Task: structure prediction
Amino acid sequence: MAGRIITDNQTLFADYHSLKAGDIVVGRVRLHAGEESLLLDLVSRGIHLIPSALSQLCSRSKTLQARLLAEFMGPGTAVAYDQHDMLHLVSTFAEATSVICKLDRANGGIGILRFSSIEEVYTQAVLGNLRFPFVVQPYYPDCRDVRVVVLGDKVEAYERHNPNNFRHNLHFGGISRPWKLSERQMEICRRIMARADFPYAHIDLLISPAGKVWLTEINLRGGLQGAVLTQQDYLLQVEKVHQQLVAELTGGQND
Result:
């Protein structure tokens, strides 16, 4: 017998303490910063989350992405949790290397910062101008920025480009053009999603001049500016994936 199926956050939190193993929560759980441990509580009680708790946590945290998906990210990518981590990074980065920092919970390109050297990052962190934790990585010049939207069997990819800004963000003057994914690039996207348990995803890739493919960010949701896919189509595809996952959990029985 299938458990309850809850599809809205109001019901979830109204009945939170009466949920039982086998119950299913469909849709992202809205949480305040610091409430993420509630996802662990739900999973530990045998409650199924669609999308998975891991994918929801990854969507909220760039530092978790950098730790969990390190094998897919550019060389030198690291997370600074405190000043001791920054001291270590000062000794591992070449002083002349330009550095990118990604603030943990900032989206839309707002939290992407560029510094001329790791020493500059260290100074700003020690002075309290950079809030720990954050992601640190070398600046990779001349790379192409490709967004891949994966919704079950439906996949759309497009390149984002801004000639006046290293942030190839469409909200800040960038333009988009269709991108044909290679089999290797698609395979990397699938591996990334499998590792972090994403049933669907917006995946941002950097493609170097030499053809190397690196993950920059993954999220359950993202802007569709530049995509052919409409918001209505997107929501319908997400609902389709949700229903397929519910059917797998219930054996097709939806009480």
